[in-house]
Amino acid sequence: MSEYSSKQKRGLWTSRFGFIMASAGSAIGLGNIWKFPYIAGMHGGGAFVLFFIFCIITVGIPIMISEMVIGRHTHKDPVGAFKKIRGGAWVIVGWLGVTAGFVILSYYCVVAGWAVDYLWLALQGTFTAQHAQQVPQLFAGLLSSDLSQLLWQALFMGMTILIVMGGVSSGLELANKVMMPILFFILLFLAIRGIFSPGGEKALTFLFSPQWSKLDPPAMLEALGHAFFSLSLGMGAMLTYGSYADEGTNIPKVAITVSIMDTCVALLSGIAIFSIVFTYGIEPAAGPGLVFKTLPILFSQMPGGTLIAILFFLLLVFAALTSSISLLEVVVAYYCDEKKWGRKKATLFMGFIIFLLGVPSALSNNLLKDVHFIGDRNFLDSIDLLATNYILPLGGLFIAIFTGWILTTRLAKGEIEKGEVRFQLYPAWHFLIKYVSPVLVALVFLNKIGLF
Ligand code: TRP
Questions:
Q1: Where does ligand 1 bind, in terms of residues with CB under 6 Å?
Q2: Chain segment 125-170, per-residue pLDDT in tens
Q3: 77 — alpha (psi -120 to 50), left (phi > 0) or beta?
Q4: Which residue's CA is the closest to the ligand 1 atom numbered 4?
Q5: By residue range, what is the domain housing residue 413?
Q6: DSSP secondary structure string, 407-433?
Q7: How far does the centroid of ligand 1 lie from the alpha carbon of residue 325, in Å?
Q8: For the chain, how far is it from start to end, CA to CA, in angstroms?
Q9: pLDDT for 175
Q10: Residue 9 lies in a domain
Q11: CATH number, domain at 145?
Q12: Is residue 20 part of a domain?
């Protein structure tokens, strides 16, 4: 089969806009709305937030460009891509990525299931009749049932499988184009409302005025890890999406646009949530339940709240879906490209395996609540920590080294500047990816193990 027709067979985005929206869809998800606010709260706000933004700029954006360049150059899944360019031990980086896809998607579906549960509550008008004090208890109610968590997790995985089975352009692309813009505007509305609420000013101070003493080594690693998680980096998801892009797509522009959008969504959601935290006296370090314990209070108090609650949780579920499909896509691309499985078979089979892998996470608040393997964290929080703080930055470190030290300028620059594209910032990017990103990731790791 010629190179051209094999590419066509794998699928391509139908438009540049589709590629941007799909990548933004992958990046923007539970990481922005569920996770960013809660970890910012646990690590004391300002300094953590600013360090997170610093990581996005010095590590995140350069690595996103790298992943997309490697993907588009090879038109392959992560394993095939490293095999094609260099082979040898580098293939392990691809392997690590596919494995991370299994791990992250397994618990991602459980948290997304919580969002589906809240959509269901919203549809029944549950929040409307509630007192501000009662709303946080709804979350405890949800966590107390293993069965409903399993059911929602299964439902969410089912939806992910259906979309991924549809393939690149019809499945993935359409879902993103419609939902992401609506989500952005509803968050903007909630954040603006939040700023003018009684807790608004405190929220802004908490999020943006740094107390550097709170930025201890674990907080730094968490911020770095979250930069990877939030931008979908370090495991080849952006590499895989880049592999469906055509020549002439301006990769740096896409990467920068996506990173800016992703950061804005996280900050808007932080502002909306912390305004409620400080208005109603909720603990900023409330942990993984934070978004579910805060926003519904607002929905219960404002006119038209039920409708907005429905819309919000619907969009949250969609944001999670556009991310989960990118996680499953990495795994599926690997089995299709390397093992020559059919798309349908790969999606169904692997989706089911990943669902099973996620079961312990779904049970981690009751049946398995005494299973702690990192500190006093339950199973779900432990593998989230393991994947986000260790696997992703490690994968990212290798991708940066690969790009900076193995790829020739001719290949990298040549790939980026295919078509009419000119990349004026090439020297800056090359400097960042060759020196700054790897050194920074290494330093944060070493700092965490207490080497300084
Ligand atoms: N970025 C997504 C979020 O913020 C999650 C995600 C999707 C992801 N694909 C990924 C994280 C790949 C790491 C790697 O919710």
A1: 26-27, 29-32, 104, 229-230, 232, 235, 237, 323, 326-327, 392
A2: 999 878 888 998 999 999 999 999 999 999 999 999 998 988 766 6
A3: beta
A4: 31
A5: 27-448
A6: S-HHHHHHHHTSTT---TTHHHHHHII
A7: 10
A8: 55
A9: 66
A10: no
A11: 1.10.4160
A12: no
